Each structure stands twice: as structure tokens, then as C-alpha cells.
Amino acid sequence: MNTAKIDLHLHLDGSLNIAWAYDRALKQGVIKSETTFEEFYDILFAKNIAHSPESFKKFELVCDILQTRDDLFDATYDLCRRLDDLGLIYAEIRFASQQHLKKGLTQLDALKAVIDGAKKAMEDFDIKVGIINCLMHKGDAEPFNHAENLEAIEASKIMYKKGLVGLDLAGFENNCDYKDYAPYFEIVKKEGIPFTLHAGEMGIGEHILDALSMRPNRIGHGIDCIQDQRYIDALKQSEIPLEVCVSSNVKLTQNYASHPIRRMIKEGLKVTVNTDNMIFARTDLVNEHNQLKMIGISEETLIRSTYESLDAAFCDEDTKGYLKEKLDKELHA
After folding, report:
1. Which one from 201, 243, 288, 308 is the annotated catalytic residue?
2. Which domains occur in the chain, in start order?
3. What is the three-class DSSP state of 66?
4. Chain centre to alpha carbon of residue 314
5. What whole-number distance in Å separates Cα of residue 252 and Cα of residue 20?
6. pLDDT tens digits for 24-34?
7. pTM for the whole thing?
8. Dihedral pair phi/psi, residue 245, rounded to 5°
């Protein structure tokens, strides 16, 4: 059985320990004092009608809990502990430093807090962790948070190779012309920082071509590639790995068989299996693998996907070598 696992697409704010989050939300006044745990649970697990700016409001709630250095540190440390319990050997945890400034932190402060939480977890547990900082689609157009996105790049430049392993573009991808965000990643490329892009998740397959034109190292989701064979062919030619998160994208119905991952694998795309948001999707990586086996994806295919994840990881070559030895040993025990 494949016990060693790697998660490359995992959001900190969407993967909090829900009991801890409830306690912090009460103490900080983020929710009303009369809010029960059951009501809090329902808020976080409410089904989205569709991807829309409105559907991202639940992220505002959990981000409001993470506005101090201690809370960012503790949340990261706890997530790493839970991942270690699940048997993960490596994870790349992403968050948006610009979302954590309401109580006086700078983006660099927020980034350092998350990195420090991961470093402490790596001292205490048998897991390797890299941090990804997200630029954000926000408002109705790219200029809405232009300064914040530039600051995120500057903070990331300082922390690259000091715990930060890459950058991302996240948020509501349909708010304007996708390529309006390309200039940010020209800066990132000049700095030599790897990056991934959320693209082709929210109904517009053309965004996959837009993302490919920006020459990312990976693409998050990419499931709208099935809208047009041209998108599939472009991904195949690029050989860029996809960070596929099945439960996250079928959460309205939980019909795993309806997800295009099987076709994506059949088409020969580089598919990695990930969780996205463990709270909102009610999942973890063990569950993802189990559900995929139930819809006919073989253990051999999942092992191959894990090796694809290792190849696509943003960590340094020494860490990759260590992880490969560990993966080989655990998978062939």
C-alpha cells in the first residue's frame, strides 16, 4: 500500500484544525460569542453554489483568525503535525501574506511566522515542508491590489531559499483578463523563483493557455482543459505538471467519478494528487487516494503520481534526493 505521500497544493487558511479555529475565533471576537461549534462548522462546510467572489468569503473568516504572528505560527505547526500523522513525507503549504495584515503585521512578518512554524514542525516531526506565497486576484481588476502583490513579491524575494520555495497566483480567476497578472511573474522569473498558477478551475479553459504563456513551473487545478482538445494538447506539449484536487472540485456533489482526472491521466498529462483545502473540501490526502482507487485509478498510477509530485516539487535537489530515498524505501518495503 502507498503510505508515503506528497501534497503540493495545500492552503493553510483552508486547512485549519477546526476546533482550534473555533476557539481562536471566539477569543478574538471573529464570530459572535453565542455561536455554537455546530454553527461554526456549518459556516465553514457550507456548500458553494458556484465559484464566485461571494464563494471566497469563507476564506475571509479563517484569515481573520490568522492575524498575529503566534496564530500563523501555531496554525502552520499544527497543520504540519497533522500531515505527518497522515504519513506525508513532504508538503508545500501556501498562503497569501497580504491577507494577514489587519493587526499590524507586514507581509514579511506574516511570511516569517509561517516559515518559522514549518521549521519548528520539521524539527519535531518526520516531514519536510516548503512554503508558497500567493499573489491574489482581488476586486474587479488587477489594479485593485497591485501594491499588495508587489509587496508579496518583495517579501518573497527576501525569504526565498529560507523556507519559502515558490510563489502562486490564487483567488477568483475570472475577475479580469487573466494575462493582466503576467507582469508580476516576469519579475518572479528574473529572480529565479519557481511559481505555480491557479488556472482553468472556474469554468474558463482558455485560462490554461493564458497560464502556459506565462511559463509557470506548475498549474493549479487545470481541470477545464477538457473543454477543448487544444488545451489538453497544449498541456501535454508543455509537460507542465498539474496540481489536481479532486474533492475540492466535486464538493457540491461528491461524485468523484464526474471529475475529469481519469481522462487527464489517460491523455498522458502530468497529474499530481493534492487536497487544496482540507476543511472546505472535508478531505485529506489519504482520503483522496482512497476515493480515487474507488473510481478505478490503480495503486500503480497513484504511486506514479507521487513520483510526479516529487519531480515537480519546488524544494532543493538535496531535499529531493532525501525524499526519493524515503519514498523508494516506504513504497518497496
Report:
1. 201
2. 5-331 (3.20.20.140)
3. coil
4. 13
5. 26
6. 999 999 999 99
7. 0.96
8. -130, 90
216-225 burial, b at 16+ Cβ within 10 Å, e below that, comes to bbbbbbbbbb
Nearest residue to 272 via CA among 254, 284, 255, 289: 289
3-state SS class at 195: strand
Q: What is the pLDDT of residues 127-153, one digit of tens each?
A: 999 999 999 999 999 999 999 999 999
Distance between CA 215 and CA 314 in Å, rounded? 15
Q: What gap in Å lies between CA 285 and CA 283, rounded to an integer?
A: 7
For the stretch 67-102, what's the b/e string if a residue is b when 16 or more beta carbons lie within 10 angstroms of its beta carbon? bbbebbbbbbbbbbebbbebbbbbbbbbbbbbbbbe
Find cell 504519513 and name the residue: 87
Contact (Cβ atoms closer than 8 angstroms) between residue 275 and residue 288: yes
DSSP 3-state assignment of 210? Answer: helix
d(CA 243, CA 240): 10
Could you write out the DSSP letters of every residue in 89-128? EEEEEEE-GGG--TTS--HHHHHHHHHHHHHHHHHHSS-E
Q: Using alpha carbons, list the distances in angstroms from residue 156 to 168, 176, 315.
A: 11, 25, 15
pLDDT tens-place string over residues 251-296: 666 688 999 999 999 999 999 999 999 998 889 999 999 999 999 9
End-to-end CA distance of the chain: 10
201 is catalytic: yes
Distance CA 322, CA 71 (A): 31
Q: Which residue has the cell 513579491?
A: 153
Residue whose C-alpha cell reads 527576501 in the numeric block: 158
